[in-house]
Structures are given as C-alpha cells and as structure tokens.
Design brief:
single chain, mainly alpha, 126 residues, 5 helices
Length: 126
C-alpha cells in the first residue's frame, strides 16, 4: 500500500484527480460503484477517520450522480415510474444509514461495506 499521507502534494493531487475521474466514469457508466472507488482512495491517501471518508464520499457522489442523471435523462433512459416509487423510501433509508453510521464502530462499517462490495461483485459476475 502506498503511504502518501505525508508525501508529495503534487503526487497526491494527481492521484486524487485520477481516482476521482475513475469514480465519475464508473458511476456514469453503470450508475453505481464510483463511491467504492472514492472510499478506497480516501482510505489510502488521507489520514481522515474512516467515518469521515464514508460521509465525504457520499457528498462527492451527489454532483457525479446529477451529471449522470442528466445524461441518462437526455438519452431517455430514466424510468420515472420506478423513480417515483423508490425515491422516498430511499431518502428515509439514507437518513437511517447516516444515523447508524454515527452509532456503529468503524470495524462494523468496514465489515458491512466489504460484505456489500463482495456480494455486489459476485452478483454482477453471475
């Protein structure tokens, strides 16, 4: 693992740009996954608390998602019937998740995050 947390600022900036570009591209391409790359990047390149990295990632995904949504909307690829039924419960789930993240130990966040990444990866491959 790279230990750049105290390292060269130019190299850190370049790595942040590369990871962030990749996160945006992945999120735009398949509609999800950019946050996984962002969490990974922040955990490697910063001294931030992991909870801070999760919440920073969540906020960084907002503009990425808005741009992706616009592109998919223009292409006519948004199913508004699903969107209208899923949005409100997802907002409540997001609020619950943010509340729980503050209450859980980082160890459990890592386990849950890792399990979801593995499960998603296996489901995508199969």
């Amino acid at each position: 693992m790279l230990n750049l947390k105290n390292g060269n600022k130019l190299l850190l900036t370049i790595l942040f740009c590369l990871f962030s570009f990749g996160a945006g591209a992945i999120n735009g391409f398949i509609g999800t996954g950019g946050g996984i790359l962002m969490v990974f990047m922040l955990n490697i390149l910063t001294k931030n608390d992991k909870k801070d990295n999760f919440s920073t990632t969540l906020l960084s995904i907002v503009p990425i998602s808005i741009i992706g949504l616009y592109a998919y909307f223009v292409a006519g690829s948004v199913d508004f019937s699903i969107l209208s039924r899923a949005s409100l419960p997802a907002l409540f789930g997001g609020a619950l998740g943010a509340f729980l993240m503050d209450k859980l130990k980082v160890k459990w966040l890592n386990i849950i995050f890792g399990a979801l990444v593995i499960y998603s990866g296996v489901k995508m491959i199969l």
